[in-house]
Fold this sequence. Notes:
5 strands, CheY-like_superfamily, Sig_transdc_resp-reg_receiver, phosphoprotein
Amino acid sequence: MxxxxxxxxxxxxxxxxxxxxxxxALEDAGYAVLEASSVLEAVGRLGQFExxxxxxxxxxxxxxxNGIDLAKMVAECxxxxxxxxxxxxxxxxxxxxxxxxxxxxxxxxxxxxxITVGNMLKGREQTGKEPRRRSA
Length: 136
């Protein structure tokens, strides 16, 4: 029995054009993509879909919660999910990010996005952070 499952990425970005560009690049590379434009919408998607493998979030988000808050929630509540945070601001204090999170500078080329996501997913599989699947 083939246990292959398409990897699912949740893209959390308030700028619609950036979110669409990231989602298109990821879909073109064969990933399933869910989108959210705020942290609260992302939390809803995380509760709605159990097979999310990675959250890719902007740090600066509208509302009282930002991407760092989301990264901390994901790391605490769903440690099997990879976390990549993106920001165009340099010199930002990222000391509150979970140790497992990776940073992606914006703007970035589609190739850089795909390498970062691929390395994060591959690294999680190799370290055993990927959930085990039951064999039928």
